[in-house]
Amino acid sequence: MAKFSFDTQPKFRFLNEDDILKVHDAALQVLEETGVFFDSEEALNILAEAGCSVDRGSMVVRFPKKIVEDALDAVPESFQLYDRDGENPITIGGNCCYFDPGSAGLNFLEGDGITAHPAISKDIVNIYKVTDALENYPIQTTAVSLDDVPKEITDCYRVYLMLKNTKKPMAAGAFDVEGIGNIAKLLVQIRGSQKALREKPLAFFDVCSSPSLKWTNISCHNIIDCAKLGLPIETISVPMPGAVSPATISGSLVIHIAETLSGIVLAQAVHPGNPMIFGGAPMTFDMRYSTTSLNACESNLISTSYAQMSRYYGIPCHTYAGLADPKVVDAQAGLETALSGLLAAIGGVNIIAGPGMIDFVNTFSLEKLVIDHEIVAMIKRVQKGFDVSDETLAVALIHALGPGGDYMSTEHTFRHFKEELYIPPNIIDKKNRNTWEAEGKKDIFQRAHEKVEEILANHEVPLLDKSTEENLDQAMYEIMVDMGFTSLPCGPKGR
């Protein structure tokens, strides 16, 4: 992607070129005249040294246009993310589009499809294992918060369990000022050194701003620590029209862009060229029930529009989509997942987080994760489009067969039908009624539950080598001891 260019805009878009320039100028005006609150003396010092105007009393920073645009220029247009073994790189940026499981859930939906309980360590291990087996999710996430461990250690403990139970690269995040440093200690045990981790990043880190136009002390230090270590940062702005951002979509978009750009400036002031992802979690507020939806139509409008802005800036982007609000995995879950996921994908978003999630991102369902895996496959087929050539137009074949022609047994059909048609496996039902009845009249949730059970029983995650695993266990144990904990549900034990 080129910087400040319209050449890489997606085919599906809500903003025209004039709109993009207006939004950009409005965000720059907010940054220069209104400013952004940073609850960190270190962040204020860094931004002041970078040339920003800092009001020490109010802790509000104002950003000259040149500093913002220089920071955008410094951000890489793409970067590589590697698996646990330092192999199989995936490109974050350009026209890539990846789906990964939703994150930050509190509850876990049981196999009956109705009962939910507070998520525990066993649940997250199962999430990691099932995700590891599903090829359309190339990135793992920390998925859920844990009820069976103290909050202070949850961030690095979830990463520890992820490193033990999947090879895939990951999205992570921290709950406190020390969190990034502790997680980095674990990642270094996998790569062998901080230099190797910087050269072959295994994770990117979500850092959330606080609406409106604020960065907390924790978020400031998360950005600073990631940038010092050269770790990719995904900023997450959370506009909510009419609640914490203007009621208009355009106004909420301006808030989103301004918050994101301010975080980018801080990161680039610490480490010019630090990899960034232009992320977000736009949502709507339902005043009837006091609920917030990440996949409302308006949320999709905001996310696909800031995806256009990120492409104008030449920076990879992320959003939450492919998730749903009902409390069970029902028809509503399917329609909301498919609609929001498709809009995000064709709208040019690079990383789409959300599969597996229901209940306003409060509850994780393994069955939904399996169902969503096939929805993602269909979305990817739509993204692929189709070829128009002499071979695919098939005029000679049409002429040869004439009216009423039988195309079933032709060589042309054998060559093309598998690559042209997406044929779902057995989760999405394509059988006739007689076959469906003969196989037990199972609905989609039952079929997905059977797939979950099959994966948990049979899928084997490649083990870490003994030395690396011992080093990882020891690093996690030392973090536990430093925090005053002697044991955790799934280890580790010190040496």
Strand line-up of the largest beta sheet: 9-10-11-13-14
Percent strand equals 5-15%
Q: How far do the termini sit from each other?
A: 48 Å
Oligomeric state, counting identical vs distinct chains: single chain
Mean pLDDT: 96
Residue windows where pLDDT falls under 50 for at least 5 positions: none
Largest β sheet strand count, sense and barrel closure: 5 strands, parallel
Alpha-beta classification? alpha/beta
The total of helices stands at 18
Share of helix among residues? 40-55%
From the spread of the alpha carbons, the general shape counts as: globular
Rg over CA atoms? 24 Å
Per DSSP E runs of 2 or more residues, the count of β-strands stands at: 20
Question: Can you give keywords for this protein?
Answer:
4-stranded mixed sheet
Task: Describe the overall structure.
The protein is an alpha/beta fold and 495 residues long. Helix content is 47%, strand content 13%. It has a 5-stranded parallel β-sheet with strand order 9-10-11-13-14. Strands 2-3-1-12 form a 4-stranded mixed β-sheet. Strands 8-7-20-19 form a 4-stranded mixed β-sheet. A hairpin with a 6-residue loop joins strand 7 and strand 8. Helix 3 packs across helix 9, helix 5 packs parallel to helix 6 and helix 9 packs across helix 10. It is globular and about 80 Å long. The termini are far apart.
